[in-house]
Amino acid sequence: MKINQSLLMTGVVCLLFVTGCSNGSSSGNGGGGNPPPPPSPTIYVAGYQTKSPTTANYWTITPTGNTSTSLFANYADPYVLAIAASGGSVYTAGGAYDPTNNVNEGAYWVNGTVNELPLPNAMTSAVASSIAVSGNDVYVAGTANSSTTYEAVYWLNGTANVLPYPSGMTVADAYAVALSGSNVYVAGTAENLTTTEPVYWLNGTANALPLPSGMSSGYVDSIAVTGGNVYMSGIAYNSTFTLYEAVYWVNGTVNALSLPGGLEFPNPNTTAIAVSGSNVYVASMAYNSATTNYEAVYWLNGTANVLPTPSGAPSAEAFSIAVSGSDFYISGSVYDTVKKSNIATYWKDGANPVELSDGTKSVAATGIAVE
Given strand 354-355, what is the order of strands in its sheet? Predict the structure, then answer.
């Protein structure tokens, strides 16, 4: 089973762990005063209008206000699925629709300037799903396809690297990328005619991941590496496609995530994972059959929490998560029943959402980064 990335808007984010340093000044005798507060981080949120003709942009959110940067592409209907920030520069990944050839073109942007991603041999279309940065190097993970096959790919500074199929698999997709030192981690899924398995590649070597009891298939769509540990999140499901559950892995050990009462996964959803110290955060969305609304959900160390929605917007989706110190940030959308559109939104520390778009068009916030 494939995730339709351009529709489900997989917003898998590159985590940036940011530390602030004081300037060494002090107040009072002998420096005995209170230390200055840490600087407020800059929040970057990527999003796009989800109905054709689409538009894509990212917001820069500081204590003094918000600005929006448009993301243009060389073709119609641009979309953005991920965002990262490093050294004051903003990196986004996604693509655009080429109406002449009826294909998707993978792309990434640096501070709003577009870079098309070349296709591997024999591939005709691509989607860029995730982005990570180390120094001057930009890594983008995604999927390239032809009419007959799919390949998991990561691009390093625009050069395509096709990832091998795991043993017995015939197609593969890449949904997330993370970096640790010289190691490159890519996560996604691989499948054949009978099964789909969650998989990650470490420096190009494929590793299949275990599934919870009773589940036969799954995928990974988010990854974070910190403290020498590898954290991944995704969805597992049974052979009849009647039961789905969110899961996360720590160094390959699977952990199933329970939903609050009344919520369920009627279909595969996106997930996102972030880690700060000993805290593991996973975000997704679930369906409430009693209200017929979707609800944005996050788990902190395995305990589920439903994110609040504003009055008049009972339905919400969560796509991406980032952390900075003890604070966590989730991006997604809420559905306004009056304007009948999705409003790009982010939550800080699980509090009331901050709306970024005005509701005149349906917009989803698919990625979030903090620096």
Answer: 315-324, 327-336, 341-348, 354-355
| Residue 6 DSSP code | H
β-pairing verdict for 263-264 and 315-324: unpaired
CATH 2.120.10.30 for domain 5-18+38-370: yes
CA distances for 369 relative to 4, 89, 263, 328, angstroms: 23, 11, 28, 10
Burial-class residue 310 by CB neighbours within 10 Å (0-12, 13-18, 19+): middle
Question: Which sequence spans correspond to the domains of the chain?
Answer: 5-18+38-370
Confidence class for position 279, pLDDT limits 50, 70, 90? very high
Task: Note whether 329 and 322 are within 8 A (CB).
Answer: yes
Burial class of 208 by CB neighbour count within 10 A (0 to 12, 13 to 18, 19+): middle
Decide if 348 contacts 327 (C-beta within 8 A).
Answer: yes
Please tell me the chain's helix, strand, coil percentages from 3-state DSSP, rounded to the nearest 5.
0, 55, 40
A 10 A CB-CB count for 1 gives 14
Give the H or E element holding residue 8.
Answer: helix 5-8
pLDDT at 32 over 60: no
pLDDT digits 0-9 by tens, 166-192: 999 999 999 999 999 999 999 999 999
Question: Residue 34 has what pLDDT?
Answer: 63
Q: What is the DSSP string of 246-300?
A: EEEEETTEEEE-PPPTTEE-SS----EEEEETTEEEEEEEEEETTTTEEEEEEEE
Spatial separation of the C-alpha atoms in residues 95 and 106, rounded to whole Å: 4
CA 34 to CA 19: how far, in whole Å?
19
pTM: 0.90
Q: pLDDT of 51-86, one tens digit each?
A: 888 999 999 999 999 999 999 998 889 999 999 999
Q: Is the dihedral of CA 296, 177, 146, 205 positive or negative?
A: negative
